[in-house]
Amino acid sequence: MTGESRLLEGRIIKAQSGLFEVETSGGVITSRLRGRLMKERMESDAAALGDRVLVRQLDDGMGAIEEIKERERVLSRSAPGRPDIEQVLVANPDQAVFVFSCAEPDPNFRMLDRLLVVAEREDIPAVICANKIDLVVTRSAKAEFDPYRDLGYEVIYTSAVTGKGVRKLRKLLENKISLLAGPSGVGKTSLLNEVQPDLGARTSAISEATGKGRHTTVVPELIPLEGGGYVADTPGLKAFALWDIEPEELDAYFPEMRDLVADCEFSDCTHMHEPGCAVIEAVEAGKIMPERYDSYLRMRQGETD
Questions:
Q1: Helix pair angle (109-122, 290-300), 10° resolution
Q2: What is the per-residue pLDDT for 199?
Q3: Distances, alpha carbon 293 to alpha carbons 22, 199, 239, 282, 300, in Å
Q4: How many CB atoms lie within 10 A of CB 138?
Q5: 205-223 burial, b for 16+ CB within 10 Å, e for fewer?
Q6: Contact of 190 with 163, CB cutoff 8 Å
Q7: CB of 13 within 8 A of CB of 222?
Q8: Predicted TM-score (pTM) of this structure
Q9: Please, which residues bridge with residue 183 across strands?
Q10: pLDDT of residue 303
Q11: Cα-flanking dihedrals φ and ψ of residue 202, to 5°?
């Protein structure tokens, strides 16, 4: 037989230098994008980790990606230095696990709030993983992270050193496509190695130039889990600029604010200074965390960190 074979459905599990590994019912096919697909998405990654695609296997064993299915949900940000371009971290995840350390470095709650806004906008279930719990008094860590549990997010406390929470994290990851994201230095690699031997080693590498453990993910990849499912790790985030979210949308992505909006005196209330604002009243009454309200104000004003 010569020419092109039938189309197979699959999912992109690895992307590197214009080549994509697509997992199909017939195995993994290393593929390239058809040129027309690259032109269709000029403001975003033409194809990304987690994308569902139709691929045609050619006579030479390579594949040609003919179609990229519409993304049901996507965790993305404005590309660093290119606010007009969408950088897709992973497409079609079942959940996002946001990893932050209790100490060394101190938790960056403004970044966490940005990540949660994107998860809310895309309807991605979010889990907050407070790592390095061994470095602090548990009570103090819970005072910082447990308020997010009150907002409806699952919060787990973990330590790669003591093993605390590792079994729970492993169970959470089973049979799901999960994205792990968080700042540099929060201990994701060590934690992943506890979840599954060498899992962290497959997703990141120590920088030989500095020897300081700077996170340098080699290529975007979905790593299979022994218990079923996949993990997509991301490079340590230094900043997380929101993509394609208008200021007037933001209150809908803060669970503690969205039900109050109807009670504001003005229908176009920005919740920044207006009289009769139900959100401001809730902040003053201690019903909304001042830190979360500050995150909202910073995002509303277009700040990127």
A1: 70
A2: 81
A3: 42, 37, 19, 10, 10
A4: 13
A5: eeeeeeeebebebeebbbb
A6: no
A7: yes
A8: 0.89
A9: 237
A10: 79
A11: -75, -20
CB atoms within 10 A of CB 305: 11
* Distance set, CA 184 to CA 104, 181, 242 (Å): 10, 9, 19
Q: Quote the pLDDT of residue 35.
A: 78
Mean pLDDT by 10 residues, the chain (305 residues): 73 92 94 79 83 94 94 91 87 96 96 96 97 97 97 97 97 96 92 88 46 49 93 79 92 97 96 97 97 96 78
Lookup: tokens for 169: 């994290």
> Taking a C-beta distance cutoff of 8 angstroms, is the pair 194, 99 a contact?
no
Question: Before 105, cis peptide (omega within 30)?
Answer: yes
What is the 3-state secondary structure of the chain? CCCCCCEEEEEEEEEECCEEEEEECCEEEEEEECHHHHHHCCCECCCCCCCEEEEEECCCCCEEEEEECCCCCEEEEEECCEEEEEEEEEECCCEEEEEEECCCCCCCHHHHHHHHHHHHHHCCCEEEEEECHHHCCHHHHHHHHHHHHHCCCEEEECCCCCCCCHHHHHHHHCCCEEEEECECCCCHHHHHHHHCCCHHHHHCCCCCCCCCCCCCCCCCEEEECCCCCEEEECCCECCCCCCCCCHHHHHHHCHHHHCCHHHCCCCCCCCCCCCCCHHHHHHHCCCCCHHHHHHHHHHHCCCCC
Q: What are phi and psi of 236, to 5 degrees?
A: -60, 130
HSE toward the beta carbon, residue 8, CA cutoff 13 A: 22
